[in-house]
Amino acid sequence: MTGLNNDFFKRKLELKMYGFMNIDKPLKSSRAIHEHTFWQINLACSGEIVLWIDNCDQKFCAGDIVIIPPGVRHYLDYSQTGSYSGFSFKFALPVDFSGKDQLFSFIHTNEKSRQLIVAITNLFKGFFPQKMRWHNREFTVTSDASYPMLVEDILFGTLRYFYFIKPANRQEGELFFKIREAIAKQGGTPLSIEGLAKELRYSTGHLRVLVKKKTGKSTKTFVDEERMKIAKHYLHYSNLNVSELADRTGFCDVFYFRKFFKKYAGVTPNNYRKRCRMGTSNLIRD
Question: In the prediction, which pLDDT does 226 show?
C-alpha cells in the first residue's frame, strides 16, 4: 500500500483544527501559496471556488473533495466566487513522508463523494458544540475533546479509501479493484467469467488474458480465491454453521463446499473456525 506498513492503519488521526466556510460574496484573498506539515481535507458542499495546487488552477465545486498531505503547495481562492460553502479539516497523522512522492488527491463529485459530504455534515451538526459551529471561522480541537471522534473516524476512512487503498489498487490495476468489488457484491456466490466480463465491459477473452498476465492465474482461480476470502470472513465473524454458509455462498451441497474450502485453505471449514477462535493469526488475516 504505497510503501506503508500495516502499522500505519493502527495510528490515530487527531483533528487539530476545523472550520466551515459559508460565503455569499467574494472575499479578499491574498493568494498566498503555502505548504504545511499537517494533513488537510477540504469538502465542497455547494457553489465553487478556485483551488491552486500542483502548479495549476482548477475549480473546486460542490461534491468535490481534496486531500492535501504535508508538503504540498496550494491555496484556496475565495475572491472570485459568488457563493460557496464547505469544510476544512486539519489533522495530525504520524506517518513518515520523507522520500515519498507527496501527491495530493482530488476527488471529483460523484455519488460516493456526495454521500460522504452529507454524512460529515450530519455528524458535524449533531456532535460539534453549537458555539463551535460558526461560519467562516476556524476552531482548534483539544486532544481530550470527545465531540470530534466520529468525524475523525470518517476522515480516517476517507483517507484510507481515496488516498491509500484505492490508489494502491489502481497501481495494481483498476480492473482488479473492480473485480473484487463485483465479487464482494455477490457475497461469495458464484460469478461466471462471462457475467463478470460483461459487468466490467470487457470481452471474456480479453479479461482472461489480462488476469493471467497480471496474476499468473486463470480468471476462475482468481475469482475462487476471492470467494474463499469471503467464506473465511463468514467463518471468523459470523455464527453460520457450515451448511448454512455453503448455502449462503451458493454451493449446491455442503460436501462440495468443504472440498472447495480445503482446496484453497488447506484445512476444513470447521478446523479453520476452531483455529480462528484459538487466535491463530496466520489463518485470520485475510
Answer: 93
